[in-house]
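ok so for the tutorial part 2 we go from a plain amino acid sequence to predicted structure tokens. step 1 is just haveing the sequence, like this:
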Amino acid sequence: MHRKFLIAAIAVAIVEGSFPAHSSERVIYLLPAPIYLPAFGPWIVARERGYYAAEGLDIQFETARGGADVAKQVGVGNAVVGGAMGDTPIIVRGNGVPVRSVAVLGGLGLMQLVVHADSGITAPADLKGKTVNVTAFQETTYYALLGMLAAAGLTKDAVNIQATGPANIWKFFLARKADGMAGVPDFIAEVEKAGAQIRVIPSSQYFESMGQAILASDQTIRERPALVRSLVRATLRGMRDIMRDPVAAASTYVSAVPDRQGQEKQVRRVFELYKQYVYGGQRIPGEMNRDQLAKLQAFYVKEGISQSAQPLDDLFTNEFVE
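step 2 — the prediction. this is what the tokens look like for a chain of 322 residues:
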């Protein structure tokens, strides 16, 4: 008899919501640029489809001043986790910033060399004497361009490299003020939309460049591994959704970003480009390729981008990818 009353009481409690709600943990997720950019599609899709909430997380995205600043803020504990590039720990770790990559969104490079289809440029060797735009000189896509040039036996002095900023890089290329640009899928979609006939030369065919990564501090990895695993799992679900169905993912993205209303087609194209050129190439989604990282660090040290080589196990961990 008591069991019947207990079952009835539980049913009433469920209907009336008298059980205390489970509170979500508020987590600051620091990004190198504003969250509304299509480059952060996996994060937005994961948030909008409830993947962070399903992990018991209330995500608060905040913007830093680039990937190095993200690493510094995460390293000192101002944010639990951050987004940067897979190579960021190589650059900052030697300066005492204790962060590692805990997942990489794709096994291919974020940067793609984009040239005009009628330029005659089909490989990095053809860039000698040409003008190429980059967003900035202290930035991963620029380093990837240097790597592509090195693969062809060229130095940066063999090419006229211009730092134009993110707002102008694709516009100057479109206006034929440059023969090529070290661009990301977002920029490729812009020039395609404007009707440009282009050729895309993937950086990963010539250089061990990397995609976006999730960074966490040594302390957080050591003391809160379950939290890191939840953050990684939810974010990678967003990436998988984009790879599986860019159309549906674009719809989810646009519904969450007011400035992108009516731009489903454009966002879908960006997602398709990420799927084609960036998100593939991994045995396990999110997994860092140790050999790739080692080769990349060797190049950075040789070029003086990083002062000294760090132990590889201090730069990444794959313990949180599944």
